[in-house]
Amino acid sequence: MPQRLSPGPGSRDWSSHPPLIAPAYKSTRLRGPTRPLVPIPASLSELTGPVYGHESVGPCDHDLTKNAARDGEPLGERIVVAGRVRDEAGRPIAGHLVEVWQANAAGRYVHKADGHDAPLDPNFFGAGRTVTDAEGRYRFLTIRPGAYPWGNHDNAWRPPHIHFSLFGPTLASRLVTQMYFPGDPLLAHDPIYLAVPEKARARLVADFSLDVTEPGFALGYVFDIVLRGPLETPMEHAP
Amino acid sequence: MSKPQDKDNTKTRAVPTVEPLRLGQTPSQTVGPFFHPVLVPEAFGYPFQGIVGNRIEACEQNTQAIVIEGQVCDGAGRPIEDALIEFWQADSQGRYGHPADGRGGNTSFRGFARAATGPAPHHRYRLESIKPGAVDSAQAPHINVVLFMRGLLRHLYTRIYFSDEAAANARDPVLALIPEARRATLIAALQETQGDDKTASYRFDIHMQGEKETVFFDF
């Protein structure tokens, strides 16, 4: 029999997440469901989830300045993005996959649907992945992404950001989010960022860090991630 | 001499307890429109190797091959061209390829796939898989779905049940939580069975809004 999750650290903290319909972000109006989510007891279906670890990444996958290089280095400002992935109790999420994607330094994605009139970079693809270490740490080397215009409203620009995708230990801990850069004036105008409740917004903004900065090579940013959990394991799973 | 003891007990109880550490959850953000090159690269012709495609491989004999296709429609009834769907399922004996599922013999079954609506005609997604078994004595066979798209600020969970499992569906404790009129939104309709391996084709559409709005879960 499925078991109900106890309220507390296991549950999704809706006050930390954006609503499904945020009218200022126009695409949500016809795409966000209107009826309340139906609470269900967590069974093995929810307390298991995709398992992707070290076998799913290659040696260069974490280095976006090299993993698509053809005849040189990508243009733009090299940066290190590093951080820890933990659950709400502060326990490291070790050995778990982190996938990222982003625009190039000019604000252009390698994507058929990106119509922005900015140059592609033949040496930059904008996709990477890595696996967290025993302390939940990850580290990417990449190019600082550029801002780009989008059609949401007049003169709308997305602040530079890096997309993150993580599974965590269970289906319930799944997270897709975006990391932003500190001090960016575009944040105050971005309806996607502003859809997050105010108290939680700062969690999406990386910190500049001299400790992570590599002298003479690349500025460093720290983006720590907290996944929902820990979650209980159901006691019974008899066939 | 009992009085001092009582006093001591009172004192002990008065010591403030330390709040357990609780870090704030990182907020969700939309997957946006540009996820294809990393999350579903092969299907969309990008020169990158994803961790998984739209196919879940069987690891046992005598499994039932299935194909599930469908559209994801917005509140105006238009098929959405850039939705990402993740599928998580048990093997034909109902075992998940995950350490929390203590039953042996299931380690090689991955049970995960990604598909996007998009280049195919009519913006259909397609999952190629095997029919999952029931994961416990109560639940009907189902595939867990995680849905992402531009315009969705946080992902949604739903489930795909099967129209040819009517008896098991009638007993399923999750379907029982849903008003009868909305249960059909979670049931994939068997279209046909064809080919040498008797692949069963199902149709499963997702409606974000409107009368047929799909049931999405909180857990």
Provide a short characterization of the protein structure.
With 239 residues, chain A is mainly beta. Chain A has helices at 28-31, 44-47, 191-194, 198-201; strands at 38-39, 78-87, 97-102, 127-131, 137-143, 148-150, 156-158, 161-166, 175-180, 207-208, 219-222, 225-227.
Second CATH tier, the architecture of chain A: Sandwich
- Termini gap of chain B: 53 Å
- How many angstroms does the end-to-end distance of chain A come to? 10 Å
Number of self-contained structural domains of chain A: 1
Rg of chain B from C-alpha positions?
Answer: 23 Å
The major sheet of chain A is characterized as: 5 strands, mixed
Q: How many domains comprise the coordinates of chain B?
A: 1
Helix content of chain A: under 10%
The shape of chain A, in one word, is: globular
Q: Radius of gyration of chain A over alpha carbons?
A: 19 Å
CATH superfamily of chain B: Aromatic compound dioxygenase
Determine the structural class of chain A based on helices, strands and strand pairing.
mainly beta
Global structural class of chain B:
alpha/beta
Please provide the ordered H/E string of secondary-structure elements of chain B: HHEEEEEEEHHEEEE
Report the largest inter-chain contact: A-B, 92 and 81 residues
Description:
The complex is a heterodimer of chains A (239) and B (219). Chain A is mostly beta strands. Chain A is 7% helix and 24% strand. Chain A is built from 4 helices and 12 strands, in the order αβαββββββββααβββ. Chain A has helices at 28-31, 44-47, 191-194, 198-201; strands at 38-39, 78-87, 97-102, 127-131, 137-143, 148-150, 156-158, 161-166, 175-180, 207-208, 219-222, 225-227. In chain A, the strands form 3 sheets. In chain A, strands 2, 5, 10, 11 and 12 form a 5-stranded mixed beta sheet that branches. In chain A, strands 4-3-8-9 form a 4-stranded antiparallel beta sheet, with no helix packed on it. By secondary structure, chain B is of the alpha/beta class. Chain B has a single domain (29-207), classed as Protocatechuate 3,4-Dioxygenase, subunit A. Chain B is built from 4 helices and 11 strands. Chain B has helices at 2-14, 36-39, 166-171, 180-183, and strands at residues 65-70, 72-73, 83-88, 112-116, 125-130, 143-149, 156-162, 187-194, 199-203, 206-207, 217-218. In chain B, the strands form 2 sheets. Chain B has an 8-stranded mixed beta sheet, with no helix packed on it. Chain B starts with a helix and ends with a strand. Residues 1-11 of chain B have low confidence and may be disordered. The chains are: A mainly beta (239), B alpha/beta (219). Strand 1 (38-39) of chain A pairs parallel with strand 11 (217-218) of chain B.
